[in-house]
Each structure stands twice: as C-alpha cells, then as structure tokens.
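Kindly review this protein for my students:
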Amino acid sequence: MQLRGAFTALVTPFKNGAVDEEAYRAFIEWQIEQGINGVVPCGTTGEAATLSHEEQGQVIRICVDQVKGRVPVIAGAGSNNTREAIGLTALAKKAGADAALIITPYYNKPTPDGLVAHFKAIAAEASMPYILYNVPGRTGQNVLPKTIARVVREVPEVIGCKEATGNITQGSELVELMGKDFLVLSGDDFTVLPLLAVGGCGTISVTSNVMPAKMSGMIDAFFKRDNARALALHLEMNPVHRAMFLETNPIPVKTALSLMGKMGLEFRLPMVPLEAASLAKLKEALAKSGLI
C-alpha cells in the first residue's frame, strides 16, 4: 500500500435524503480516471457527522467496491467518543479499507494520556493502519509533534498524520521528529507544496474533488524534481483553494461539483446552500479555472 500523493477527501452525494450510490460510484471512477492517488470516504468533506453508522458502513463499502484495489482507500472513522470510534474503525476494517483516518477527539480535548488511551483502545478492538488527523480548527486542540510521537511509540498502528494546522514550522518539526518512514499528509490545500518541501508525502485534499489531475500532477512533478511545473500548478490552484473555503467546507466544494454536473446539490442540516454572494464568487473562480 503506497500512501503517497494526492488523496481526495470525497464528497458524499445525496438524493432525496439518502446516499446517491450511482452518483458516488461515477464520481469515484472519474477521480481514478483523472489520476488521483487515493480516496478518503467519510471525512469531514463527506459530511460524515450526519451519516448514521449504517450509512457510514455503506459509503465505505461502496467506495472499496468501486475502487477494486486500484488506489488505496483511507476511511474516516473517528469520533470524540472512544466507543463510537472503535465501532466506526471496525466498520472500516470489515469493509476492506486500507487504513482508517482517525480524528483527535474534538470538544472533549483529552490530555496526552487520554489521547494515547483513546488510540490504544481502538487498536485493541480494531487493529489496522491509522492516520491520525490533527485539525485544530475543528477540534479546538492542536496535538503537538511530541504528543504524536508518544502516540506512535505506544500505538504502532498509527503510521501517519493528516497535518491540517497549515503551520509549516509544525509540519517540519513533525517530519524531523518522526523520520522518513512516518507519513505526513497535508490537510491544508494552501500549504501542500510547502509541506512537501520539508518532507511531507502528499495530501488529503478538498480541492482535488474538483481538480484531481492538477493536484496529483503537482505532487508527481515535485517528486520528479520538476519544481517549475509543481510551482505553476500550485499557483494555478490557489484561486480554487480560496473558493473552496468561501464558506464552511463542504458547502462550496459540493456546490462546485453540482455546477460541474458531477452530482445533485443536496446537503444535510446543519449544512445549507451557499449565500448568493459566495455563489457568485465560486462561479467566477470555477469559470476562470475552466471547470464550468
């Protein structure tokens, strides 16, 4: 399993309140055709917080079945409730995911001891490769490299980190502390290229929902030492990165995919459609980038 390159944090399409399996399968297939290196079902971008456990298992199973081993599948499986995280990770494992993306417990804000105990408990019941997801903007807590190092020492299933602080200094320190075998994936589209430059191995991306070829192409160019092309693609994607975060993710990206004809525009509360001013800005950015 090669967990390097561009991994799309997949949007989950809905139709009449249910998961739109047909649209989801077609979307995953398009991602693979466009050269994406891997997919991540049931993350924040996939509105996992509003999926039932049954639906989460369904979405992961659909994804694994559609991929058929062509690229790795990292399934979202975290929770701030350790028992729930165990159950969701077991679902991901049973569905055949290659790894589980496990967010650090949000709202509870556990101590380092609590974080270690959380991952130990999950590993005891559903052992598989884990990517720790550090996203202070969602959890209210920044897990520092020294704490991540401790988690990895005590829970060897943790093989990497989705580093979503946008702080290159912290990302560089994490790479320095953990060494080349630990996978550091950017969780911040704006800083993918800089994180690669200090030792990152790829990204779990929102923007690659709409620009999979360019995101995977940028990372491929970097690893082939074609720095001019990597920089050109980085700068080309910047306006779309900004558009993807005009409002709370995944509202803009799902709207963009609807405008591109990839799926219907249906959210689950508390997500609601873009405001008119944001929609106009999104359309302008997509048009300028040739996406609509």
